[in-house]
């Protein structure tokens, strides 16, 4: 670390990760577990087949509350809070007002009538807070994501209230006398619950969850899981120059709400003109993982580039998301330029792996 580099932040569960021999890596200004003893592929398959727990405390929490909270969020973010109510959660975007590109993708937990927890990506908390105000309460809590087809069965042993929360609903519960919040949200393509627990109570909550037979999982599995589910990652499928329309996320944008949103005029211009590129899924014939930035070619001519790529543990082959020309559609046969080799790929339907049940 140089004199100008800030120290990495640590989750309230840092000591617990060390005790589990986690491989720790820098991520978004935090030192977080990449994987544990069994490795990323085992953790990935445990989530698809059973249940895992992630520490996602590096995600931000900006508490926005008071009489004007709803109106401020409604006029700033793309989605329409009028579609939901207190006790619900909503996926939404904060856009650049100049070009309509995505400054951050966000989950809003509507905790109470005038209380909202805005959940930005790790490195974007300050940017989001500048747009919506509120208080950065990230350091006061840990967020533990229990994910997988058996997530609720295991979580119910620790908290029946948290386990019962509906998909994209929010509920308050207590742990060891401490107030907590749970949301039926996640980032794996599987069912699950994310629990925000006060920092001082988080280690005991984590231990109680693992004691039910839940496997710990790190950022490596989180990334391969979200890729199989075709969920976007900021800095890859979303970010500077990439709009919700290019990323295939037009459903996140409410054009009809009277309050509008930041970036609406720029995004409307793109909608009327048509996007210059769009997001598709690619699958290789073999196990070689595509990598971010790899050129996508059609008949030798570049038509786009990979935004995220990896090996799919479920499919047993390489998969990727890519931004390509709008005339490239499902069933197209293309090639990737990988380390000087031409690797055949096919444009396939998303998500790569469907949730069971």
Report on the structure:
There is one protein chain. This protein is an alpha+beta fold and 357 residues long. The chain folds into three domains: 9-56 and 138-228, Gyrase A, domain 2 (2-Layer Sandwich), CATH 3.30.1360.120; 62-135 and 250-275, Aminomethyltransferase beta-barrel domains (Alpha-Beta Plaits); 277-357, Beta Barrel (Elongation Factor Tu (Ef-tu), domain 3). The protein is 21% helix and 34% strand. The protein contains nine helices and 20 strands. The chain has helices at 14-19, 40-49, 69-76, 125-132, 151-158, 160-163, 202-211, 219-228, 264-273; strands spanning 9-10, 23-27, 30-35, 52-55, 62-65, 88-95, 102-112, 115-119, 135-136, 141-147, 170-175, 178-183, 192-198, 215-217, 278-284, 295-298, 301-312, 317-324, 333-338, 341-348. Strands 11-12-13-10-4-14 form a six-stranded mixed beta sheet, with helices on both faces. Strands 15-18-17-16-19-20 form a six-stranded antiparallel β-barrel. The protein has a five-stranded antiparallel beta sheet with strand order 6-7-8-5-9, with helices on one face. A hairpin with a 2-residue loop joins strand 2 (23-27) and strand 3 (30-35). The longest helix has 10 residues, at 40-49. The termini are far apart.
């Amino acid at each position: 670390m140089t004199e100008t580099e800030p120290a990495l932040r640590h989750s309230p569960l840092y000591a617990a990760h060390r005790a589990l021999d986690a491989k720790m890596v820098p991520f978004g200004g935090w030192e977080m577990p990449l994987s544990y003893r069994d490795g990323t592929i085992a953790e990935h398959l445990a989530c698809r087949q059973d249940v895992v727990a992630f520490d996602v405390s590096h995600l931000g929490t900006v508490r926005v509350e008071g009489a004007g909270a709803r109106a401020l969020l409604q006029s700033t973010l793309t989605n329409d809070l009028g579609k939901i109510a207190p006790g619900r959660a909503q996926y939404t975007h904060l856009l650049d007002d100049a070009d309509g590109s995505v400054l951050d993708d966000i989950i809003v937990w509507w905790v109470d009538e005038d209380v909202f927890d805005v959940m930005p990506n790790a490195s974007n908390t300050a940017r989001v807070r500048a747009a919506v105000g509120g208080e950065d309460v990230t350091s006061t809590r840990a967020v533990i994501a229990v994910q997988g087809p058996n997530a609720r069965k295991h979580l119910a042993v620790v908290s029946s209230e948290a386990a019962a929360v509906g998909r994209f609903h929010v509920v308050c519960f207590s742990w060891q006398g401490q107030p907590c919040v749970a949301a039926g949200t996640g980032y794996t393509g599987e069912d699950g619950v994310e629990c925000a627990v006060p920092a001082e109570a988080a280690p005991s909550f984590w231990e109680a969850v693992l004691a039910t037979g839940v496997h710990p999982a790190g950022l490596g599995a989180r990334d391969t899981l979200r890729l199989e589910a075709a969920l976007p990652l900021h800095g890859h499928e979303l970010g500077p120059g990439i709009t919700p329309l290019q990323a295939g996320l037009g459903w996140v944008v409410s054009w009809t709400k009277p309050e509008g949103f930041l970036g609406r005029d720029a995004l409307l211009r793109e909608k009327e003109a048509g996007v210059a590129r769009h997001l598709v899924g690619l699958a290789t014939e073999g196990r070689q993982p595509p990598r971010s930035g790899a050129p996508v070619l059609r008949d030798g001519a570049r038509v786009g580039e990979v935004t995220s790529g990896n090996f799919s543990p479920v499919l047993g082959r390489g998969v990727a998301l890519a931004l390509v020309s709008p005339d490239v559609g499902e069933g197209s046969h293309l090639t990737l330029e990988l380390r000087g080799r031409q690797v055949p790929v096919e444009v396939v339907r998303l998500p790569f792996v469907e949730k069971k049940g």
